[in-house]
Amino acid sequence: MSMIEFRKVQKYYGKFHALKDIDLEIDKGETVVLIGPSGSGKSTLARSVNGLETIQSGQLIVNGRDIADKKTDINRIRTDVGMVFQHFNLYANKDVLENIMIAPRIVLKMNEDENKKNAMALLDQVGLADKAHNMPSQISGGQAQRVAIARSLAMKPRCMLFDEPTSALDPEMIDDVLGVIKYVTSQSDMTSLIVTHEMGFAQEVANRVIFMDDGQILEDDKTDVFFKNPSNERARQFLSKIISH
Amino acid sequence: MITLLRTYWSTFLTGFGWTILSSCIALVASLLIGSIMAVFEVVPNKTLRTIGTVYVEIFRNIPLLVIVSFFYLVIPMYVVKINGFTAGTIGLTIYTSAFIAETVRSGIKSINIGQMEASRAMGMKYVQAMRFIVLPQAFKVVIPPLGNQFINLVKNSSVLAFVAGFDLMYQGNAIASQTFATVNTYLIVGAFYLVITLPISYYMRHLEKRLA
């Protein structure tokens, strides 16, 4: 059963063809890593899954609902799809705890006690229970990203999108964040789509790796196949450049 | 000056009261309307955006006196009879709200788009994201220019004098023409305006520091 399904999806920014004829199926529980050079359309692809980018044609079915259909309630889909951004995007006017609690409160109408208990448990999970009352500006990038992950999980999503979650972090903070993501993706019923440049991490967590360039999916393989013997020439070039250092 | 103040203190106070009342009503109403128009100007919906832009461009580009005269002279002819105070306060509200809209809009624009995206990605509606995440941050940014608008509003309320709005300026004119104590009268009137505007200045600065 697929969680996310792209069918002949086209996306344009004005005249620029950002996603070309995308066909892609991601099954429930799968962890898929999306790699490719910058400007290849991987972030656009991930962001279209929860409607942050609108597609111009084709079908994009998320958890059984077609996002491109005007009758679809996009907010309903978004409660099922968590998203973690490159620049964290924690709400700057709310403390850490409130960052996690606000969406469950106003979107899911969650009971306040349950919400708080849930939020504290999540903070504990990402190792930041002591930062509950700090403002986002008072914590480090790595901590902020872990809070952002907890914030997404508070909605109890079925699927997570990670859009370059470690690209804006200092090297020594990357491991903590990757550790949390690894834990999230290991949950058996969680579907994850991860855009990343961390190849070692990709090898470790991904069931499948997708390589994109110029708005197209050029390779879609099981992880070990992709890293050992990519069939696409462009993908091979890309890997040789990245892995050499 | 003391004698003048002693003799006419109740007249001055009446004017002071009407000025404060008009300013308070116009401040609250223009902040509300201005904020709504500011949001209209940035929403994805094209119709609302056009409404917001047209509203702002019309009312900030017409002299306040023209707007007030319109409500004082034209509206009673065709729609409903309103007195000078009401016409003046409505005109003041509409005029100021256009400037507040521009101020708040610039604040909204200064907030990183990621704040809106993160809110929407969590399933919040556009209005909820604005209300709980973007606007609170935007207002914080625009406190200093908003303070300017409030001060301008209080001073602009003197336009009520032209439409028999019984405000400070109106009473000042009346006293001056009665007593010919022109200098002293307007010195006192000016001092009364300071009594309103200086605390606003001070309070906005305090707010800016407290929220920074």
TrEMBL record, chain A:
Residues 4-239 form the ABC transporter domain. SUPFAM superfamilies: P-loop containing nucleoside triphosphate hydrolases. Keywords: ATP-binding, Nucleotide-binding, Transport. Pfam families: ABC_tran. The keyword Nucleotide-binding applies. GO terms for molecular function: ABC-type amino acid transporter activity; ATP binding; ATP hydrolysis activity. The keyword ATP-binding applies. PROSITE patterns: ABC_TRANSPORTER_1 (PS00211), ABC_TRANSPORTER_2 (PS50893). It comes from the Bacteria. Belongs to the ABC transporter superfamily. This is Phosphate ABC transporter ATP-binding protein. It comes from Companilactobacillus versmoldensis DSM 14857 = KCTC 3814.
From TrEMBL, chain B:
The chain crosses the membrane at residues 20-40, 61-79, 85-108, 129-147. One of its GO terms (biological process) is amino acid transport. CDD domains: TM_PBP2. It is found in: Cell membrane. The keyword Translocase does not apply. SUPFAM superfamilies: MetI-like. GO terms for cellular component: ATP-binding cassette (ABC) transporter complex. Residues 16-204 form the ABC transmembrane type-1 domain. GO terms for molecular function: transmembrane transporter activity. It is a multi-pass membrane protein. Keywords: Amino-acid transport, Cell membrane, Membrane, Transmembrane, Transmembrane helix, Transport. Belongs to the binding-protein-dependent transport system permease family. This is Glutamine ABC transporter, permease.
